[in-house]
Amino acid sequence: MCNNRNKIFPFLVILLVTEGNLGCIITQLMDSNTKFLIEMPNEIDPDEIKLSNRGNIDYDDQKLFWFIHITDTQFVWFDNEKLTQFYQFFNSSFQEINPLFIYNTGDLVHADNGDAQDVEEWKLYKKALEDNNMNYTIYIDLAGNHDAAQDPTYSYYLNYSLIGSNFNTLQYSFNRTFSFGNYAFIGLNTATESYDLVEFALIGFLNSTELDWYEGELEKYKDFDRIFVFGHHPYSFPLPFFIKSSLSSSGKTFFDLTEEYNVFSYISGHVHTNYITKDNGVLSITTSNFDKDNGTYRIISLDHNKLSTTIENVGIWPQGIITNPTNEEILKLNINKIRILAWDPSGINSVKWTLINLEKERQITDWAPLTRVHHSDPLWEGDLDIRVEGEFLLKVKIESVSGEIIKDIIIHAKNSRKTVFFLISLLMIITLISLSIIITFYPKFHIRKFKKNKEFQN
Fold it and tell me: pLDDT value at position 417?
């Protein structure tokens, strides 16, 4: 992301595109005003979108949910093998993982590489969703730059996408409430000017009308535990992939608003790669195009409001995600909890964990079993007992009829007692110094004051 992202940087670009890869030559910088050619629809009532009772575990100390992110399905529609993978994703991955929802962040179709919309692509997309019983309660789709190319009224998206056809909208939000918190999900249209081949480019756009809507949604959800925002173009990525933002009526850019309202995570596609970074407190996540590696999708979980994520591929089992602890988390020297979600249509035989000391490069615990919390849930749990400080690799092995897979994360352990002892010691030192100063100088001050009073009385 460029340092001057809050300014408008219009680019004239010539695209050199090959299947699965994007390339561009920036030929000229020019002044331009962001245009929005269709009227924004009325605000969607969050209660109109009700999610199925799936993708969450909410009892005792188990407080988590998970969903799936896919993006850039544009290369699926005229390749039978890729189309089969898309169907398999719904028939197998979706059915087994049973997420809260699937979120597709755009470039639903290819549109002849942005040259013209192709109704046959859109029909195949819509048919795939219908054949697999998808509806807007469990599948949400945004428009990408390919979906808007040469179509300033978004007629194809509004007629063939699930959200567009059901709500006649390009931006929308919904929320989900559990006993452990309230969570908001806001979808933005970042492809406003992508209908023009000259500005098709790689850049995202958000104009004042869109930003006013966004600000209203953020204000509505400002007291929620977590706010997730979705868009096609990435929030933070090297040039020329960025979002060109106008100003809202309150004079704020997209980035100003996102940071001001403490958006937890912004999730996108567009750049055809898997990329995670943190920018001014906002966790930015991008996922690769769906057809990569025989069907790529991302699982995102939130366990006690801490996010974990993993990339998975269609047809590969078992699969899983460590939800607690999270990657690079700092743990106390004590017993901590390990939690992992594990899936396999053939069934999970066992889940085990071990710990490797990265500094000494050796395994310091034997493989220990985790216990399934409930036979109908994919959650496994156990105790992680860490007695020494350091940097560790936590490895979890999932074994099933299909085979086995190892998931791992890096964690850090520190002795919190040392920190407490240091603070207490520091406080005691400050106290002793203060007392010493008082004892040393107060009597002298008192004597001088007494002498002056005596002189005044005389």
Answer: 53
